[in-house]
Automatic annotation (TrEMBL):
<dbReference type="InterPro" id="IPR050164">
    <property type="entry name" value="Peptidase_C19"/>
</dbReference>
<dbReference type="GO" id="GO:0004843">
    <property type="term" value="F:cysteine-type deubiquitinase activity"/>
</dbReference>
<dbReference type="GO" id="GO:0005634">
    <property type="term" value="C:nucleus"/>
</dbReference>
<dbReference type="InterPro" id="IPR028889">
    <property type="entry name" value="USP"/>
</dbReference>
<feature type="domain" description="USP">
    <location>
        <begin position="1"/>
        <end position="216"/>
    </location>
</feature>
<dbReference type="InterPro" id="IPR001394">
    <property type="entry name" value="Peptidase_C19_UCH"/>
</dbReference>
<keyword id="KW-0378">Hydrolase</keyword>
<protein>
    <submittedName>
        <fullName>UBP16 hydrolase</fullName>
    </submittedName>
</protein>
<dbReference type="GO" id="GO:0005829">
    <property type="term" value="C:cytosol"/>
</dbReference>
<dbReference type="Pfam" id="PF00443">
    <property type="entry name" value="UCH"/>
</dbReference>
<dbReference type="InterPro" id="IPR038765">
    <property type="entry name" value="Papain-like_cys_pep_sf"/>
</dbReference>
<dbReference type="InterPro" id="IPR018200">
    <property type="entry name" value="USP_CS"/>
</dbReference>
<dbReference type="GO" id="GO:0016579">
    <property type="term" value="P:protein deubiquitination"/>
</dbReference>
Length: 217
């Protein structure tokens, strides 16, 4: 879907990205890099239909002459619809010559994350005037081992029912009240048939591969 946006607001977010100043090696830094503003120049120039029509005339002439005009452009990926459930998949491998190598670096992640700096200012399911889009962590998948072999374990939080989340999933509606109770809960570590209660600090120190958050606000 192609739409024409005001250049002054096309790249605006719900919260100021420049105030974020994310710490390197954190999930905020990952999201900041993933949604950064990119310039498309030289061989990455954008094929512009408007510029092509200005240069070559009506579309019927464009096809016959096979002429296209490319122009410099800006590109940015932002969230246009805040999901009820947010799943973050961390890239845990990198190219090393002809081989793939496991990335074992610890990535810091919080129990409550704010997606507002990564949402477009016209995010469809965020109330006008809101500058926060909060999510609470409820699950983590961790991988130990190498690219060839290893073991998956999970952390899950037992918590009270999130009525706000139910409204989002079942009715597509967002209530204004922050469900603080869903932030509380007991964490458990699950490895095959073994389940053990653990602290939140233990969870936050894990080498996350998948992160699962549920929307609060």
């Amino acid at each position: 879907e192609v739409s024409t946006e005001d250049p002054e607001t096309a790249f605006c977010t719900l919260a100021n990205r420049e105030d974020l100043n994310p710490e390197e090696g954190s999930i905020y830094h990952c999201l900041y890099q993933f949604t950064r503003n990119e310039r498309l120049t030289e061989t990455n120039k954008l094929l512009c239909d408007v510029c092509t029509q200005r240069h070559c005339g009506p579309k019927k002439d464009i096809k016959s002459e096979k002429k296209h005009v490319y122009t410099n452009a800006k590109k940015q990926m932002l969230i246009s619809l805040a999901p009820p459930i947010l799943t973050l998949h961390l890239k845990r491998f990198q190219q090393a010559g002809f081989n793939l190598r496991k990335v074992n670096r610890h990535i810091k992640f919080p129990e409550v994350i704010d997606l507002a700096p990564f949402c477009t200012s016209k995010c469809k399911n965020v109330a006008e005037g809101d500058t926060k889009v909060l999510y609470s962590l409820y699950g983590v998948v961790e991988h130990s081992g190498t690219m060839r072999s290893g073991h998956y374990t999970a952390y899950a939080k037992m918590r009270s029912m999130n009525n706000h989340l139910s409204d989002l999933v079942l009715r597509g509606q967002s209530s204004q009240a922050l469900e603080t109770e869903s932030v509380k809960g007991q964490w458990f570590h699950i490895s095959d048939t073994h389940v053990q209660a653990v602290s939140a600090a233990k969870v936050l120190s894990s080498q996350a591969y998948l992160l699962f958050y549920e929307r609060l606000l």
